[in-house]
Amino acid sequence: MVESLGEFLGGDEKTGRVALAVGAALFIGSKIKGAWNKRKQKETERLFQEAIKKQDAEICDLKKDAADSHAKQKHYEEVLEAYSASRGDDYEA
Hints:
mainly alpha; rod-shaped
């Protein structure tokens, strides 16, 4: 079989062996590359999910900070209104 392949390619048995070795190397290389790509894709997906979790946590913190700031603003407005009322000013927030 190796000799026939070599003759088909215009050479001898050695040419056939080289052709089979190159074909096997390409096949094995493609399988290794496929496994590498799957591993790389899984790692990319894991990092993406981790980034989303961190972003969600930051958004949650920002919403809490905004709610706290809003509550403080309302409190300060109430204090200012009470102070203004005690002085007889007509302050309206």
